[in-house]
Amino acid sequence: MSRTAAIALAVLLAAACTGGDDVPPLLDTVVDTVDLDAAVGTDVVVYDLAPSPDGLPVALVGAAGAAESWLVPLAGGTPTAVPAVDPDSELVIADDGTPLIVGTALTRVGGAVLPLRLDGPPDAVLLDGDVLNLARDTRLTAVDAGTGEVRVTAVAPGPVTHLAGAPDGDLLALVTRPGGGVDLLRLSPDLRPDDEPVELVAGGGTPTALRVTADGTVVVTAYVNEALDAGRLVTVVDGRVQTVADLEGTDDTALDLAVDPTGRVAYVVLSASYHPAELTAIDLATGGRTGTVALCGGAGAFGAIAPSADGRTLTVVGSCIGADGPSTTAFVIE
User: For a surface tag, which of 30, 174, 216, 244 has the fewest beta carbons within 10 Å of its beta carbon?
Assistant: First the structure.
């Protein structure tokens, strides 16, 4: 999501707050589901889910052996077929509504396919206006989103897994240390480290999501063990860790993250054989759970989360485990 879109989302969510303490209302109801398999007529795998500047998010999906991939608008409408893309590709949508698929090349859907000098799909993508900031391993690159022209390159102190924009114009990156551990790194606009890293996980760990609220609160989720059955949510304010919440039931979820930009509430999906699939609200000040929304009758497997343009809903993609077999579904929650 571009910085402009993030600020607009923050304003909309802040306006929706009620109560004397301006606590945002919790999302608590599944209001719609979209069968992504039925949308394109085959069993699909969701590669990415991207917020759209107009309405509900858009899903990038593919299928084993298929010559095509598809963009599925969750607000309705006909899916758009594109030549098959790498499963590690990421989808971002420009402020003018143009979808960009970033993989081994930059595909402007409906336009040009532009080469990218990354030696493979990027590990992290951040679209900021007309600039795509990309990370592959330790290499950071900023390219023109319209032409693919490289604007600046830099090298990070460790592999970069996620990028996000800060309200002051800097970039934030999650970096895994070669010896183990996860750090938050602030980068200047020319992609150079701008401060000392903040340690989020002391040893091991796999980062899963990075979000920044309008007031600059940084929220991170990560697995903390190799089994991926234990997670952690961390907030960072003014360069210091403020809240740490340990999470159980992360076995069958990608542990993606959505955050209310007022800095009050985060949402993650928890699901495991011993834990029902639930969208879970977490108070960012205390780390306590403040609400859940059931997604399946039992367990399921879940991936990405993305907000709508007006901030009133979240969309979660995943599959419930039932007698009829899994069906790849987008759950719209308000």
Answer: 244
12 is a domain residue:
no
9 within a domain of the structure (yes/no) = no
- For 234-280, the DSSP string reads EEEETTEEEEEEEEE--TTB----EE-TTSSEEEEEEEETTEEEEEE
The whole-number average pLDDT for the span 48-71 is: 95
**CA 95 vs CA 1, 69, 258: distances in Å:** 9, 23, 20
pLDDT digits (tens, 9 = 90+) for 152-176: 999 999 999 999 999 989 999 999 9
What's the domain count of the chain? 1
Query: Any long-range contacts for 234-240 (C-beta under 8 Å, 24+ apart)?
Result: 234/200, 235/263, 235/284, 236/184, 236/198, 236/200, 239/186, 239/195, 239/198, 240/198
User: CB within 8 A of 148, min separation 6: which ones?
Assistant: 106, 114, 115, 116
Task: For CA atoms 72, 171, 177, 280, give the dihedral sign.
Answer: negative
Residue 7 lies in a domain: no
Average pLDDT in the 230-257 region?
A: 95
Pairing mode, strands 124-128 and 113-115: unpaired
What is the average pLDDT across 217-221? Answer: 97
Dihedral (CA of 321, 92, 166, 135) sign: positive
